[in-house]
User: What shape does this take?
Amino acid sequence: MRIERVEQTDTVMLGAELFDEPPTPARAEHFLRQPGHHLLFAWDDQHPHDRPIGFVSGVEILHPDKDPELYLNELGVADAAQRQGVGTALVRALADLARAHGCVAMWEVSDADNQAATATYRRSGADEGSPTNVFTWSW
Ligand SMILES: CC(C)(COP(=O)(O)OP(=O)(O)OC[C@H]1O[C@@H](n2cnc3c(N)ncnc32)[C@H](O)[C@@H]1OP(=O)(O)O)[C@@H](O)C(=O)NCCC(=O)NCCS
Assistant: This one.
């Protein structure tokens, strides 16, 4: 398995089926052009189908009084490639990238009942925080 940072809009579109919603080239281009926005794809070199088998995305969070941190935004692995270590490898690769970019921590919020995500974050070295409320403003 190979994990690579995505740099091209066309490459993002190859992973369209991994995302919650189909990405558009315009949104992909906008994402890739933003400083501190990162998207990694996992590729299966043994069974290449020209499609990535997993992705993770993250955003560097800045604040005037703090060192930068990386927020792990989304993580997904194709059904056929799950439970083979791909998710863990993607999270570890994003943590490596975060360190290389000067981030002092990486964090993520996930549903407490998402057992797969919880196990993946634990396995990739995360400490669990205390129970947290998430507040959303919708419009
Ligand atoms: C979460 C997800 C990315 C894990 O990917 P993966 O490649 O299967 O993960 P790994 O193979 O690296 O497994 C890591 C751990 O999770 C466990 N795990 C994986 N799928 C699981 C499942 N469905 N139920 C329970 N545990 C699971 C593995 O057994 C392993 O645990 P271990 O260290 O105790 O052996 C994948 O299940 C997925 O894409 N889910 C849908 C999207 C999602 O929920 N994303 C996260 C929230 S944004």
Observations:
- The longest helix spans residues 86-100.
